[in-house]
Amino acid sequence: MYEAVVQTVGGVFRATTPDPLCIAITEDGVDGIVDFIHLHPNETAAATAANLPITLRWWVHENIRGVEIMSAYLNLRS
Fold first, then answer.
1. What is the pTM assigned to this prediction?
2. pLDDT of residue 37 exceeding 90
């Protein structure tokens, strides 16, 4: 399973795809899921490995406004 990671000056956010139509967002140091992005069937490309870091960066920009993004990358979780 792939995991997108976005590091900001305020924290580290992670995105995984438990389902092809859903992206789960977590934050390091916070228990549980912070948010879900529910996708329409024609939006499944947002959850692909190539686009997952881009989708997470968009989520951070929309939901954690004013926070500088330090880096964004993709991990392969085992």
1. 0.91
2. yes
